[in-house]
Amino acid sequence: MNSTIILKGNILYTPRPSEFVAIQQGYVIAVDGVVVHCGESIPPAYGEHPITDYGDHLIIPPGFVDTHAHAPQYCNRGLGMDKELLPWLETYTFPEEAKFSDKEYARLVYGAFVHDLWRNGTTRSILFGTIHKDSTLVLMELLQKAGLSAYVGKVNMDRNSPEFLIEDTHQSLADTKEWLEASAQFGPLVKPIITPRFVPSCTSELMSGLGNLAQAYNVPVQSHLSENHGEIDWVAALLPEAANYTDVYYEHHLMGGKVPTVMAHCIHLSDVEMDRMAETQTMVSHCPYSNVNLSSGIAPIRKLFERKIPIGLGSDISGGHIVSMAKVLTEAIGLSKMKWVEVDQMYAPLTLSEAFYMATKGGGKFFGKVGSFEKGCELDALVIDDTTLFDPNERSLEERLERWLYVGDDRHIVERYVAGKVAPEPTN
Length: 428
Ligand code: GUN
Ligand code: FE
Prior knowledge:
Helix content is 36%, strand content 22%. It contains 13 helices and 17 strands. The protein has helices at residues 85-98, 103-119, 133-146, 169-182, 204-217, 229-238, 245-251, 271-280, 288-293, 301-306, 325-343, 352-364, 397-407, and strands at 4-16, 19-31, 34-39, 52-60, 64-70, 122-128, 149-153, 155-156, 190-192, 195-196, 221-225, 261-265, 283-286, 311-313, 381-384, 413-418, 421-422. Helix 3 (133-146) links the parallel strand 6 and strand 7. The longest helix has 19 residues, at 325-343. Fe (iii) ion (FE) is lined by residues 68, 70, 224, 264, 316, 319. Guanine is lined by residues 70, 85, 89, 93, 197-198, 224, 227, 290, 316, 319.
């Protein structure tokens, strides 16, 4: 293909958590969707190529990365926010997910959800579907059509679940295999991820089978870990021989193998569990809105960060009610301030660059080289026109970005790029 694109504008990215690179009127150049240059001028070799000039707009990577969301819970946003995790699942979540046995209902809801991802500039996401393989394939098809990148999971659950949302163990594994094979029809941007819901809803036999499939098919893994005290006590009662919640996944080869794993929440991990997360380089998906809504707690993000555990941010639709990762990012900062002021002065609050890093390059690591404008990264980008955010004062590029993250919204996103291509508004 060998296509070259050159974008011009005010460029901002975080190569490291502690640092914004800001380039006034800079250029980002990509060949075949991969960044070859980002700087203040165009190297002579690219001098002949046309330039897409975005004037005074901001250009940020990668778009945003949402490392944890439940697509079938889209219509439940804002419901049951007076409940904690386990009653919330029983009352709201499971009955809604059961409806996805109907592919037409799935197409309706997933179409709206994918459109909302696009609208909010989430170019990459790691998603839960439901136990239904055909509906999960519908979600993958819609993401592919929209030109968005995602890991999508057919959920597995074979115990402690209502009869309308439970699988037979062998059927669950057979369906997962069939679905993994059917997933090969999608391109490099939309891929499968093995998805045991969480330990309470999966037998040991199912988890072992899924661990084997992940390794055999070279497919990553996602689940939930240490979200809520009732959940943690339940896991301890179900598996009294296990050293801790984290080790249940580890012992079933669902983390620490050759494929990467992302675990949502990780709020109440012990030091030993954090050591395991660090040793296996398992990614934490921090979901601040969800943790507030379901009274789950405040994750020790600074501590996880210092232990070099990879961290991304997640909307956790619909534990969280907000799709916009710009807002998830600012909520992560706010919650870290509450931890610092109310709980422990050792946990310094997150800075803007740290939170931005988590929402871009931090989560982007799960996809390879994504989330930055450094050489070798896939070119995902958002172009932001903040002129209607009235401000007659001179501001730095960082200040303009901070202001947009806090008070702006999707109306200011004028273009979205995924892997070097413009993603136009999805039509379904
Ligand atoms: N744990 C198991 N299932 C779920 C879910 O759907 N949402 C959240 N937030 N936690 C879970
Ligand atoms: Fe979740």
